[in-house]
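Consider this pair:
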Amino acid sequence: MKTIVFLCVNNSCRSLMAEAITVQLAKGQVKCFSAGLVPTFSIDENAVMVMAEKGIKMDHFYPKKIDDIPTDFDIMITIGDKQLYPMINALIQEHWDIEDPKDHDIGFYKKTVGTIEEKVTILLESIL
């Protein structure tokens, strides 16, 4: 089973949305994680709301530190700032330049979810 990790700075919105979308679309065919360098204490409320509108509950997803996840993956996706994550090993590394919707309106959150869903779909089609 392939393993995927989504990484960003705060692990409060984009990387958690990517993890949740991957879990839903992959239907148990991949093992998925997300984490951040400096995770926030809670998930972004607007992210939860927008994901719920898509039928994806975020109840079991929460911000995590990189220390809280495994260190070896098949695929590592960094989102937003192109940070270096030398503590994570991955056969494939990819960067998704997706702006943080935090300081934008709900429409921008919806656009962000759409972009992430498109990218996750392409990723899963390439590995499953």
Remarks:
- The first helix runs from residue 14 to 26.
- Helices lie at 14-26, 45-53, 106-127.
- DSSP finds three helices and four strands in the chain.
- Strands lie at 2-8, 30-36, 72-79, 89-96.
